[in-house]
Amino acid sequence: MNNYKPDTLCVQAGYAPKTGEARIPPIVQSTTFVYEKTQDMADLFDLKSDGYFYSRLANPTVSAFEAKVAALEGGVCGIGCASGMSATSLAIFTVAGAGDNFLSSQAVYGGTYNLFSTTLPKLGIECRFFDPDAPAEEIEKLIDGKTKMIFTETVANPAIVVLDFDKFAEISKKHKILFAVDNTLATPVLCRPKDFGANIIIHSSTKYLDGHAAALGGLIIDAGNFDFKANERYSSFNEPDESYHGLVYADLPVAFGTKCRAQMMRDFGAIMSPQNAFISYIGCDTLALRMERHSSNAKKVAQFLSAHPKIEWLNHPSLKGNKYHKLSEKYLPYGQGGMMSFGIKGDVKKCAAFMEALKLITQETHVADARSCVLHPASTTHRQLTEEDLKKAGVPHNLVRLSVGIEHPDDIIADLKQALEKV
Ligand SMILES: *Cc1c(COP(=O)(O)O)cnc(C)c1O
Predict the structure, then answer these.
(1) What architecture is domain 288-420?
(2) What's the CA gap between 397 and 385, in Å, rounded?
(3) Candidates 3.30.559.10, 2.60.120.620, 3.50.4.10, 3.40.640.10; correct CATH number of 6-283?
(4) What value does the mean pLDDT take over residues 83-108?
(5) pTM for the structure as a whole
(6) Per-residue pLDDT for 106 more than 90?
(7) For atom 6 of ligand 1, which residue has the closest CA?
(8) Which of 19, 29, 181, 357 could form a disulfide with 419 if both were Cys (CB 3.0 to 4.6 A apart)?
(9) Residue 109 CA, ligand 1 centroid: distance in Å
(10) Contact at 8 Å (CB) between 178 and 125?
(11) 122 C-alpha vs ligand 1 centroid, how far in Å?
């Protein structure tokens, strides 16, 4: 299955019915599973055999979605989580505890930034932020013996920074540190981080994977390309886990994925629901088609807006003059996705006038689904910040975030045009 192109994997991977079984994965809405032999259940608890016993650890519907996204990412294991935020949290907890640290790009999703800058430090896990465009030597200076992970985003939300994968793959190989990438805004259709050296891939499936604004969800994909064995940085993978009869995770074929599920999902319980896994699985069928359309629509919209006299600047990697255009040619050759940001000439009032004049495109906190939507961070998600702080966060007061949907491009552009006329 893994040799197929993403378009084929989107519709075929993850679930293969046997004769007489349902064509698509049934929603297995059951907390638990029955066994006749005590030994069979004991083997499951000992991770000696595969199967289901309690839906906090694994569920057949969730497995189908996990397997589909793992196939798309070229990974060896996928773990479905309740949300993108829980996926990020569990990925960190799998490798880091109090006294440890990890590095993160400062250009990450706002919720991720809060988790890293405020909540994890309270638990004794320090995050050291870096500018993703900084030279490797500067980023390497942040690494010490307690550094467990480097965290990045393929296309940063909302800064639209395209990741320079080669730089981070080199740092991670040199220091034998896990390289994790949040691939939410690119999706495996536009970019497969594993092909560029990433070890852990994280998704908020709430966005493009579901694609219909219908179900929250997240995933952790273990690419299966990191050797924990005898790596001093990862003693917790090389010492016996007493809560699993002395299992040594580094000895397993799927080390990270097994530890993440067996310890972190068991203890934190942030699993995806069968219902959400079903919705996301179905949504993912059309992912390749949608990403193509999101990307081509966004390119047309970016060209229209960047030439408009009322637009001060526009950020989308499809534009030749964009800072990340070169990187996107290398890492996002099939399309650059539907997310962009732009500045309206004038003050905050002008932004509000523009957004309220939109008829087709709606104002919402969401991004990356089939319907076009906008958000004005300075008056919503970032409204507590001063104008000075907004600049530092890379979110100027006149920034509008636009998530271009899959409507007809002429209709999207016509709506933007009539709203700009009212500004
Ligand atoms: C939305 C988002 C998240 C968080 O996902 P939730 O499903 O909302 O918890 C993480 N990373 C990125 C890039 C996102 O856009």
Answers:
(1) Alpha-Beta Complex (3.90)
(2) 10
(3) 3.40.640.10
(4) 97
(5) 0.96
(6) yes
(7) 84
(8) 357
(9) 7
(10) no
(11) 21
